[in-house]
């Protein structure tokens, strides 16, 4: 099985080779993210090394102050003690300043990387073709942009910092302690054994438990997004109670998973403190005896105690690193998978310049399948002369939308070519293609913003006059004027809400202003009242004038204004003729037409 792209994302049973391939893909992504900031990374590292050394040096000056400064002070020489205190303060200040600098530096690096990654994920998912979006749910994409990026942010913000500074801190402290007094150093090394055992135990246990929290949180997000995007269906089918139960269950799982993680900390944290305290007690006893013997100076003992104490301070954070690393690695694997996906509808490398399109659409030897094992449109030819209005009719699932999607190049045919004025759509620059061919879908999606913004989507540089002219042309002007702020009404604000028919008129205006030579229209099935239907019908006529049009027609009145009707059945065009010819015949369309007519009476 393949693990390229998002395939196998939900699997847990990778073979060695697959795991390696995924890891390498993550590392390549990480490398490409780090490359632009590598100079800053080196600078930050240098700052961490110096600041840690400065912090660790403190107890050495204290030992010197007590061992040498105090006796000197008793002999009226205050210079050694002042020197020790001065040096202690100086390294303290240097340490503090460098920590501040380093915090800013590393935060900037992490922000730069996250900014880059966030942008890449967004741009890339937006570029991917429809087939990707139809199978990869929005819940999963949202999880990539939110919790996965958060996991990476956590690693960059604290995980790596804690690891690097913690490691340096422990190493420097151990070196200083050995240099100061090797016997205490031995005690410290002895205490490393239980420390490592405890940490290993914690990591093993927590790895599985942290994974459970991540899975639980991802499930929560997906369920939430699905419930909210499908809120109409939820309400219509009274799915609230069931949702409440499902969501309640998921929240419970999440809470329990978190509780299990916290239980582990409940053992690990006190364990660390205990080991640290026992080590300290041993250092004190061993050191105390030697002080009594006169083989160890009291200042040195104090410094060894300070070192033993501070040695354990970063241990917990370092143990945590492993977890933030694990979640970030899992996130990086998923994100790199999305980034590895290639648009199935690729942009041409050397596009053909389409000067002034006429609007002739030709299908030659076209066959189409969404998935290789099921052909939806068996091989066919179709020629649509420029300027013709075609009504596509047929029962549900016949393949009408699929045919329309091929004309707008949402998909490429499996075999054969779809061309505009003789040029294969695959050879057209996306800009030319979108200018020449516009598809108006049933949903007539309105983006947040004003009514004018939504119309101008068809032509971003449109002037207000052009917007109003487009609205007038399709018959939308009157109702827009009636909105609270006219063209400046926010479509998402109360009062700016528009009806289904009005929404359609707005999408007509949007298409009208875009002025494509080929227009594909998936007519909304929602039944409109008679005045709205008439309004939409009139708008449609203006919109269709002087261009090639393919309408997936659900209304009799629309079929009547077409020059030609294509009837589809199981992916094949079974009838092709003028409305009058087909109505007069005895075929499928004549039956459909009779049924329609009867339904109107
Ligand atoms: N993204 C997809 N992946 C796989 N199969 C699909 C996809 N979209 C549609 N199909 C299948 O292709 C066939 C044709 O669907 P299509 O949407 O083109 O029909 P239609 O005639 O437009 O139907 P309707 O009038 O209900 O919209 C159906 O059997 C459908 O199950």
TrEMBL record:
Q: Which Pfam families match?
A: ABC_membrane (PF00664), ABC_tran (PF00005)
Q: Where in the cell is it found?
A: Cell membrane
Q: Where is the ABC transmembrane type-1 domain?
A: 42-327
In Swiss-Prot or TrEMBL terms, this protein is called: ABC transporter ATP-binding protein
Do the record's keywords include Transport? no
* An annotated Gene Ontology molecular function: ATP binding
- Please list every transmembrane segment annotated in the UniProt record, as residue ranges: 41-66, 78-104, 160-180, 186-202, 265-289
Task: Provide the species name.
Answer: Antiquaquibacter soli
Q: Which InterPro entries match?
A: AAA+_ATPase (IPR003593), ABC1_TM_dom (IPR011527), ABC1_TM_sf (IPR036640), ABC_transporter-like_ATP-bd (IPR003439), ABC_transporter-like_CS (IPR017871), P-loop_NTPase (IPR027417), Type_1_exporter (IPR039421)
Show where the ABC transporter domain sits: 361-595
Q: Does the keyword Mitochondrion apply?
A: no
Q: Which domain of life is it from?
A: Bacteria
Q: Which Gene3D superfamilies match?
A: ABC transporter type 1, transmembrane domain, P-loop containing nucleotide triphosphate hydrolases
**Keywords, sorted A to Z:** ATP-binding, Membrane, Nucleotide-binding, Transmembrane, Transmembrane helix
Principal location: membrane
Question: How does the protein's chain sit in the membrane according to the entry?
Answer: Multi-pass membrane protein
């Amino acid at each position: 099985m393949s693990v390229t792209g998002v395939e196998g994302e939900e699997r847990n049973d990778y073979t060695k080779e697959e795991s390696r391939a995924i890891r390498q893909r993550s590392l390549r992504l990480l490398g490409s993210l780090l490359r632009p900031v590598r100079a800053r990374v080196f600078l930050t590292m240098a700052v961490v090394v110096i600041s840690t050394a400065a912090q660790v040096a403190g107890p050495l000056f204290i030992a010197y102050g007590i061992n040498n400064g105090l006796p000197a002070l008793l002999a009226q020489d205050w210079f050694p003690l002042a020197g020790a205190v001065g040096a202690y303060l100086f390294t303290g200040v240097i340490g503090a300043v460098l920590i501040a600098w380093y915090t800013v530096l590393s935060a900037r690096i992490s922000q730069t990387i996250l900014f880059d990654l966030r942008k890449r994920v967004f741009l890339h998912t937006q570029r991917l073709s429809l087939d990707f979006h139809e199978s990869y749910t929005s819940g999963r994409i949202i999880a990539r942009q939110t919790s996965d990026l958060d996991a990476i942010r956590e690693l960059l913000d604290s995980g790596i910092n804690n690891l690097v500074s913690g490691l340096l801190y422990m190493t420097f402290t151990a070196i200083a302690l050995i240099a100061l007094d090797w016997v205490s150093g031995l005690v410290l090394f002895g205490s490393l054994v239980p420390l490592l055992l405890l940490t290993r135990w914690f990591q093993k246990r927590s790895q599985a438990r942290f994974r459970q929290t991540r899975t639980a949180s991802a499930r929560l997000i997906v369920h939430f997004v699905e419930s909210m995007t499908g809120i109409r269906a939820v309400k219509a089918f009274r799915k609230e109670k069931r949702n409440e139960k499902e969501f309640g269950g998921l929240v419970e799982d999440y809470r329990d998973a978190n509780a299990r993680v916290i239980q582990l900390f409940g053992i690990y944290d006190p364990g660390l403190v205990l080991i640290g305290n026992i080590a300290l007690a041993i250092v004190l006893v061993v050191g105390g005896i030697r002080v009594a013997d006169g083989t160890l100076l009291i200042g040195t003992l104090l410094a060894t105690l300070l070192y033993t104490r501070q040695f354990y301070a970063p241990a917990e954070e370092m143990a945590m690193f492993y977890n933030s690393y694990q979640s970030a690695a899992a996130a990086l694997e998923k994100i790199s998978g999305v980034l590895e996906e290639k648009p199935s509808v690729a942009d041409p490398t050397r596009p053909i310049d389409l000067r002034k399109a006429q609007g002739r659409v030709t299908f030659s030897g076209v066959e189409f399948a969404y998935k290789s094992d099921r052909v939806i449109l068996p091989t066919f030819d179709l020629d649509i002369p420029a300027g013709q209005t075609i009504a596509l009719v047929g029962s549900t699932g016949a393949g009408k939308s699929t045919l329309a999607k091929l004309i707008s190049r949402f998909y490429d045919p499996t075999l054969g070519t779809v061309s505009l004025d003789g040029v294969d759509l695959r050879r057209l620059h996306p800009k030319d293609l979108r200018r020449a061919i516009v598809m108006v879908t049933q949903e007539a999606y309105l983006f947040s913003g004003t009514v004018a913004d939504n119309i101008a989507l068809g032509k971003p540089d449109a002037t207000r006059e052009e917007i109003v002219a487009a609205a007038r042309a399709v018959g939308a002007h009157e109702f827009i004027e009636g909105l609270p702020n006219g063209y400046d009404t926010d479509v998402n604000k109360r009062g700016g809400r528009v009806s289904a028919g009005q929404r359609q008129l707005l999408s007509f205006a949007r298409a009208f202003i875009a002025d494509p030579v080929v227009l594909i229209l998936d007519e909304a099935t929602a039944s409109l009242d008679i005045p709205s239907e008439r309004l939409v019908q009139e708008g449609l006529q203006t919109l269709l004038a002087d261009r090639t049009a393919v309408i997936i027609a659900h209304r009799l009145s629309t079929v009547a204004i077409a020059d030609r009707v294509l009837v589809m059945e199981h992916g094949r065009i079974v009838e092709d003729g003028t409305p009058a010819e087909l109505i007069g015949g005895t075929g499928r369309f004549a039956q459909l037409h009779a049924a329609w007519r009867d339904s109107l009476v």
